[in-house]
Amino acid sequence: MTSPTEIPQRPATAAPPAVLLEQVRRTYPNGGGTVAALDGVSLALAPGSSTAVMGPSGSGKSTLLNCAAGLDVPTSGRVVIGGTDLTGMHPDAVTRLRRERIGFVFQAYNLVGHLTVAENIALPLLLGGREPDAHLRRYLMAAVGLEGMEDRLPGELSGGQAQRVAIARALITRPAVVFADEPTGALDSRTGAQVLDVLRDAAATLRQTLVLVTHDAHVAATADRVLFLADGRLAGHLDAPTAEQVTARMTGLGR
Ligand SMILES: Nc1ncnc2c1ncn2[C@@H]1O[C@H](COP(=O)(O)OP(=O)(O)OP(=O)(O)O)[C@@H](O)[C@H]1O
Q: Looking at ligand 1, which atom is closest to the CA of residue 36?
């Protein structure tokens, strides 16, 4: 098993925010008018920090993640990833930036059914014309507890194992920022907790910035900061909170 300390680290520099949002607004057509899924959200996330995003259903959490990760385009406002402004960028350039600097873990795993575990993990690199780093791949397989399962197909995996593959796939490009949208939402609570430990430990080892949407106060309480959304707007934050504090704040938001 490869020691995490053998993985080359990103240099610690006085870097710009890993993620910067300025007055981000995203509207969708709704009947004759529009609905604002995000209504002027501004935030800055420090490199290497972990942030949980919480809020009632429909408050804009997924829209926030999708806009911040370049998967969706704000109607107005700016998204800046590690100093690179996505505003007005050609979609191909956004795709490249996403492949190189952003990892995304979805609730539904989104693995490619006819590719093996090893092929799924290597996919983001192969799509970008890069070869997987064998050393990092071995480290990630061990870190997510999938050693020996390289040749399995997604259909032969449990939900927890599939999400571990998705995590390894999100980290194989050594992204600066990892976004996870309810990554444990489809798992039982014990498996979910294990998968989350894997994600947190690997992100910390690789010094990645982690942004996580969750409905679980215990999960949120493991982050450095919890951001609360209501009706598409930021409705406060808590730093290093307990699960009880998070639950109390969510209750205050009407959940
Ligand atoms: N593609 C879309 N077209 C129209 N409306 C949308 C679209 N995507 C999201 N919305 C609306 O925007 C609002 C925010 O949705 P979003 O999925 O971001 O919320 P959420 O907080 O992630 O919700 P949940 O916790 O239920 O997943 C909701 O009112 C939703 O109906």
A: 12
